[in-house]
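hiii so um. not sure if this is the right channel but i have a protein structure encoded as C-alpha cells and i wanna go backwards to a sequence. like what aa goes where. can anyone help
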C-alpha cells in the first residue's frame, strides 16, 4: 500500500490521516500489525500489553516521567549535565522578571532567549550581547509565552538526531531559511523561485521561505533589502533560526555523525530513562562553527517525516526503525512510498 492509499485507508477507519500517522500506519500494515482509532481519532496499536497512540509528533510511547522532564527545558538540561552530557546552562523566568533575568544573563553573555515551552522556532532570539537587545527580546517572548527561557549561546551547526529505543537511526542538518544569489535576480525573486521549487517537488515537510518583518530585519543586519541583487553564490539569510516551519532546509546528515557524537546522543537516553522515541537538537562543530558537540534540547515528541523527506540527501526510514523497535519479530515487507 503506497502512502496515498494509506492515508485514504486511515480516513476510512476514522483515524487522523496526517503525514506522520500515515508513515507509521503504512509500516504497521506492511507487517500485519493491527491498527485502530481511539476516542480522539488517534492511531493506536497494542504493544507489550499497552495501547500506544500516535497523533502526528505526539504519542504516549515514552515513559510519562521522561516526557515530563523533557517538557521543562531547564530540568532536562540539568539532568544531562549531571550525567556529563554537555548542555548549555539556562534558567526560566516569568515575563515580569526581566531585571532578575538580566542579572543571571550578564555574566554569561552572549545568550539566547526563547519560550520555555517551545513554539516551532518562533520567538527565538540568538546571540544577544547587550542590555537593550536583551530587554527587547525578553519583552517580546514574555508577551507570547508563559515562561521565558534564557540560555547560554553556544556556537555550532544545529542538527536533529533521532533515536529509537536508545539507538541513533537518523540525523538531519538544519539550515536556516536562505537564498543564494545568482547576480541577476533580487532577493524577493530568489525567494519566489525557491518557493516555486517547494511546490514543484511537493516535499510535504518543507514550508515556504517567508518574506516578512522578521525577514527584513535579518536581511538588514547583512546589508540587504528584498529589492537588492546579491552576487553569484552570495548567501542571504532570511531567518536566524533553522526550523523548517520558518522556511529552513533539512539535509540528511546521518552518515556525517562521528562516533563521539553518536555516543553522546545515546548517552542522553541513559540520562533520562524511558525515552523510547526522542529527537535531540544538537549543536555540532561544522564549517568552522563551534568547538565541541553539545545537546541543546531533548524533544520527546519528535517529527519522523523530516527524515523521510529531507530537502537534500538520502531519505531515512524512521517509521520503519520505530516499528522494528516496537515489534522486532514482525516481518517487514516491501513498501512503496
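sure thing!! here u go:
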Amino acid at each position: 500500500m503506497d502512502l496515498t492509499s494509506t492515508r485514504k485507508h486511515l480516513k476510512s477507519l476514522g483515524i487522523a490521516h496526517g503525514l506522520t500517522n500515515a508513515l507509521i500506519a503504512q509500516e504497521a500494515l506492511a507487517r500485519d500489525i493491527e491498527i485502530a482509532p481511539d476516542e480522539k481519532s488517534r492511531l493506536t496499536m497494542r504493544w507489550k500489553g499497552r495501547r500506544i497512540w500516535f497523533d502526528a509528533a505526539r504519542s504516549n510511547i515514552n515513559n510519562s516521567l521522561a516526557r515530563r522532564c523533557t517538557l521543562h527545558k531547564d530540568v532536562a538540561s540539568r539532568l544531562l549535565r549531571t550525567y556529563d552530557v554537555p548542555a548549555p546552562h539556562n534558567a526560566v523566568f516569568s515575563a515580569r522578571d526581566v531585571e532578575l533575568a538580566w542579572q543571571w544573563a550578564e555574566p554569561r553573555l552572549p545568550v539566547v532567549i526563547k519560550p520555555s515551552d517551545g513554539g516551532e522556532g518562533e520567538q527565538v532570539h540568538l546571540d544577544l550581547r547587550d542590555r537593550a537587545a536583551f530587554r527587547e527580546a525578553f519583552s517580546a517572548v514574555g508577551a507570547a509565552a508563559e515562561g521565558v527561557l534564557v540560555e547560554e549561546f553556544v556556537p555550532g551547526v544545529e542538527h536533529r538526531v533521532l533515536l529509537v529505543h536508545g539507538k541513533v537511526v537518523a540525523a538531519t542538518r538544519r539550515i536556516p531559511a536562505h537564498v543564494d544569489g545568482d547576480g541577476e535576480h533580487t532577493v524577493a525573486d530568489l525567494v519566489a523561485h525557491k518557493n516555486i521549487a517547494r511546490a514543484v517537488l511537493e516535499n510535504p515537510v518543507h514550508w515556504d521561505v517567508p518574506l516578512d518583518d522578521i525577514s527584513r530585519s535579518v536581511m538588514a543586519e547583512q546589508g540587504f533589502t528584498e529589492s537588492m541583487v546579491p552576487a553569484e553564490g552570495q548567501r542571504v539569510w532570511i531567518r536566524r533560526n533553522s526550523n523548517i516551519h520558518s522556511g529552513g532546509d533539512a539535509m540528511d546528515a546521518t552518515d556525517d555523525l562521528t562516533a563521539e557524537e553518536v555516543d553522546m546522543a545515546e548517552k542522553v537516553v541513559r540520562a533520562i530513562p524511558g525515552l523510547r522515541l526522542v529527537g535531540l537538537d544538537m549543536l555540532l562543530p561544522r564549517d568552522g562553527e563551534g568547538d565541541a558537540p553539545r545537546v541543546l534540547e531533548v524533544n520527546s515528541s519528535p517529527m519522523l517525516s523530516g527524515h523521510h523527506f529531507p530537502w537534500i540527501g538520502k531519505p531515512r526510514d524512521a517509521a520503519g526503525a520505530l516499528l522494528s523497535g516496537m515489534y522486532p519479530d514482525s516481518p517487514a515487507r516491501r513498501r512503496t512510498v
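oh and Residues 187-201 form the longest helix (15 residues).
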